[in-house]
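B., you asked whether I could sanity-check this one before it goes into the benchmark set. Here's the sequence:
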Amino acid sequence: MHLPMLLRQAAATTVEPPSRRQFLKGAAGAGGALVLAAALPVPARAAEGAAARIMGPADPRPLAFVRIAPDNTVTVLVKHLDKGQGIMTGLTTIVAEELDADWGQMRGEFAPADSALYANHAFGIQGTGGSTAVTNSWDELRMAGAAARAMLVAAAAAQWGVPAAEITVAKGVVSHARSGKSAPFGALAEAASRQPVPAKVTLKDPATFTLIGNPSLHRLDHVSKTNGTAIFALDIRRPGQLTAVVARPPRFGGTVAGVDDKAARAVPGVVDILQIPTGVAVLARNSWAAMKGREALAVTWDESKAEKRGTEQMLADYRALARKPGAKAARKGDTAKAFAGVAKVLEAEYSFPFLAHAPMEPLNATVELTADGGAEFWAGSQFQGIEQPTVAAILGCKPEQVRINTVWAGGSFGRRATPTADYMAEAAHIAKAYAAKSGKAPIHVVWTREDDIKGGMYRPLFVHRFKAGLDKGGNLVAWEQTIVGQSFMAGTPFEAVMVKDGVDATAVEGASDMAYAVPNLAVDLHVVKSPVTTLWWRSVGHTHTAYAKEAFLDELAAAAGKDPVQFRLALLTGHPRLQGALRLAADKAGWDKPLPPGAKGETRARGVAVHESFGSFVAHVAEVTVRADGRIKVDRVVCAVDCGVAVNPDVIKAQIEGGTGWGIGHALRNAITLTDGLVDQANFDGYEPMRMSDMPAVEVHIVPSSERPTGVGEPGVPTAAPAVANAVLKATGKPLRDLPFSKAGIV
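And here's what the prediction gave me:
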């Protein structure tokens, strides 16, 4: 089952719809503006394939709000976190289209934390992830815009004494041609706010869209992020604010056994030292003093339950497990019988390292305890629906007493969305402990880059073992795959629905539901346990399942003597959208045309990969040069994406370009490794980001579609690296089975 739907099931019982009183109370402070909740039912869309899996059932709760002010601005309250992926622009575009607004009058604002009003349909709570933002808001925001438009028209008709049917709306102006009267939205806002919300609205014909699909629409955040006025969590400064950093165990699973803080307290600027569940917090007047105070701490750690293995030992343990049957994740046909009659058998093993998220803005949050026993937060909050109740439990207050001000986040890639609300919980513990000892003060908890990279919440370490069989015609007839890795759902509130019969759905997605028509298939999973903390990472399970599947498929195509594109197309019967993306990428890349020759001693080749994730269909074709010394250069990447209706083509292209760089960059040389349980990397010197010199030219082609929009934040990642690996296989005959590529000495 798809991750977002599982999250929804896990949380659905904890969310109650808002009462009419709650909604009216929220609208009362609008100050003469039209504040509209999309209180219209979201149309039921039963069994719509991947889109239905992401959307879940219809949800009639009033989730999306539109505010039209007397100054003629239209503000969309965005319930998701924009961490650079363009959600603020995308969701605002949907409203503006149905409203017939002028793009220049549109604004976006982060909605307050309130799962009753702003739950993500895919999760059942307020939160961002799984590339769900546009697809789960598509219907409700279209209806919100259409309803607001209808109310403006009704107000104008009443004021002007003309039939509503004769009124038109275009670019933020309401007009009646016969009388010559017109008014901007702002002039009608107060009167429109007194109109009843229509029980039914008519949505625009997509053929008439002027904003949705417009490639020249500028992003709402481009000016503020360019001139430095955009506010990120690291920018927050409150009166009397203290900065806190935390000394955490050097080995995963360690705990505090004792603390000598005398030297730390002597550091100028240090205010207090507090022990909290995750370690020892140092509070100071500024971040420098806090970090110097932490350096001066003498902490004794209890490591009796800590992870003390190194990466190589862990890999050896995983590989041993991969040779044994695991929990059944998928079964089709009879693989044992099929292998008895095949003409050729191939076996392979792939390994994937721990990977850090390492967003450019490290984790941080500011907390200020309030007079009513609650708290106010400022953070790049991604999982408000988890953070509110988690913090409330720590402080002993009600969730609604925890106010979260969501601000811009400098990246996340999954790190800010944790089932334990780890960094927000840490802030709450520090504020509570300090208040009990010294009184209330705003506290800014900051993770340094080293804290983040050494601190875990990694993409898990994985091993995949394959066995596949080809018949005499080179057709793939049998496929066995065993996956070994940690479950980041185990031990969380989501375990009951995320892990079934020993199978964590996030570890096998993209493998257990593989699109290729293999008549006999078996996928097994071994869930291993370790104190090393792990978490979803941009594109979750697809980060490793797509690579393993697509790289091994090219090995099979080579063994069958077949063209990799044609080999895939033949196996994708019944999947026209995957076939369409694959054909478009191959055509735009000139797959059937020879590459220009390289310099003397160089070999050039193309590689391909295609995959579905998060309801979107993506294919990559990579062009690689293998130099005379055996090192590689990725020259060009062509990508095709089918994500349904393209709401913001420019944002889509940017996300696919970024996902391509993210996937290739990590495959080149990134790995988190352990020696005796200690993390070897600490900053970007050891965990290198992709460099400009590594980045290939990227072309993105969007498949025209009338299907409902699906996500693009993550689907650009899974196929980027295997396309490169397959190009290297074509050029050298050597498969890249152990990531990163630097292990093979080619980068």
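One thing to flag: Residues 233-304+363-446 form a domain with the Aldehyde Oxidoreductase; domain 4 fold (CATH 3.30.365.10). Otherwise nothing jumped out at me.
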